[in-house]
Amino acid sequence: MASRYSALALARHALSGAPWPRAWRAAKPQPAYDAVIIGGGGHGLATAYYLAANHGMRRVAVIERGYIGSGNVGRNTTLVRSNYQMPGNTQFFEHSLKLWEGLSHTLNYNVMLSQRGQIVLAHGPSQLDVLARKGNIMRLNGIDAELLERGDVMRMLPYLDYSPECRFPIYGGLLQRRAGTVRHDAVAWGYARAASELGVDIIENCEVTGFVMQQGRAGGVETTLGRILAPRTGISVAGHSSRVAALAGLKLPVESHLLQAFVTESIKPFVDHVISFGAELFYISQSDKGGLVFGGHIDGFNSYTQRGQFPKVQTVAECAVALIPSISRLRLLRHWAGIQDMTPDGSPFIGRTPVPGLYLNGGWCYQGFKATPAAGWCFAHTIAHDDEHPLVRHLCLDRFERGHAYDEYGLGPWTYRQ
Fold it and tell me: Which among 334, 396, 379 is positioned nearest to 42, based on CA atoms?
């Protein structure tokens, strides 16, 4: 009955002609704040929220060039997981997954977490060995992981191609049951509303054009809506990290590439898990609306266009059909691209920069969405204390100078193709 009355209330409001209340305040920029966060995506909004909630910093502004949800937070395949094996990354992404598990309660906003489980497939004995090692590392760190034999995969995923003629034989896989998906738009809206309720000003349609330098320190930003002063400024702009950092005289070891995502027409539910293809960087799940959502590698050339390219459409379609032949007749509904800020080792930067008062959260490569809560948590700590959070000290900007690369990408099972 409660759901019926809620539906009736919703219908009455829709037909009344009354405007819907805003989820967050339409703030105008003030002359000065305690901290400014450049970028109103998931990471920027999470940082602002945790600055207010964890560190009591309420005089915070989030500056977004477009509108909330217009960047990568609304242009991804919504996957969350913590099946990492590099020291430091393992603990960081597990912290992020734990934050995901309580995020709806924390924000008082349903982010639609679906812990349907992720299965990473192995297509040869060496890949299965790599996944066994990864699973052991995960379990040693208190993270759930189950190594699956071929028969286990066949029982859980009966629609994959197990025929003798299949292009990529399936030898087994690695299952993390707590992994899954989250509604990306709800993440942006939930963090924005919760931050706004704590006093954070969210300023949309405002572009940063430069930095205010005061005796060698970053003292604020110049924007299309005027100068905003702040003793602490955080950059959290995903694929535009190198461009914004250059305004402060910083040259980052970062390239911007397109990463496409795809969704098919809706069909009846049958893909109950998130599946990662061990033969190529390809992953697929099914949305609540029934569409198959999938993605693959970056397009491989620098760009800021946010437009998809046909060669990658062809590649991911080939992966999808090789893995699940029964979907070969499905029509592709749409595809889009986010701008990935790619680093040489596939791991991000999060911490202080050589410019005092200026902090960087970027270079997330393929890992940005799943890292959203922990990135915001750790970046807020770094800004509030002018010192990196212990979970991200290994991700400092000077790690290449020190020879401490963290090549998590190079450890993926697709590196060991047969």
Answer: 379
